[in-house]
Amino acid sequence: MDETTYPAMPSTFSLDILTMTAAASVLLDDAVEPPTGEALTSLTLQLRGHLNLLIPELERKYDVAGPRDAACAQPGIGEAQRRLAADPSSLSPVRHATLLARSVEALCRHFQRRADPDENHDSQDQRRRLQGAGLTQQRPTAQRVASQGQQRD
Predict the structure, then answer these.
(1) Which DSSP string do the residues of the chain spell out, in sequence order?
(2) Confidence class for position 144, pLDDT limits 50, 70, 90
(3) What is the pLDDT of residue 152?
(4) Which residue in 25, 30, 81, 97 is deepest, having the highest Cβ count within 10 Å?
(5) Which residues, other chains included, contact 51 with Cβ-Cβ below 8 Å and sequence gap of 6+?
């Protein structure tokens, strides 16, 4: 165990998922220039801290949730652990921070799914992926559906 990974202990506080996803979005938003220098170093440390909070909390939540739920989250948890343990000097600082940000975002989604299982997170994830690619999801309107029906005739 290195100095940036701490053993899992029961949490006595709630996780601020909005702050965590906001920190990750700084690096994942293609429209924004990534930070450099001290700002990047600070953000990287912040993302590492978020992962060190998220991982044990998710392990605890999914441990009691059942094997199916645990099997869904375990690959993301494992990837986050590998990214935390990886030698950051093998990548550029921005690439390393971006990988940490992706893990933070993925684990936050798992956490939200576990916290609110009735919410339709799949459509939110799809909308987020489309927006990240510079696309928008168009909902079918009566006019568009009618015009598509006429084109088929």
Answers:
(1) --TT-------SS---HHHHHHHHHHHH-TTSPPP-HHHHHHHHHHHHHHHHHHHHHHHHHHHHH-HHHHHHHHHHHHHHHHHHHS-GGGS-HHHHHHHHHHHHHHHHHHHHHHH-TTS-HHHHHHHHHHHHTT--PPPP-HHHHHHHHHHH-
(2) very low
(3) 47
(4) 97
(5) 80, 83, 84, 100, 103, 104, 107
* Residue 120 token pair: 């339709």
Residue appearing with tokens 């343990």: 85
Amino acid letter at 100?
L
* Spatial distance between the Cα atoms of 99 and 104, rounded to a whole number of angstroms: 9
> Is the distance from CB of 25 to CB of 74 less than 8 angstroms?
no
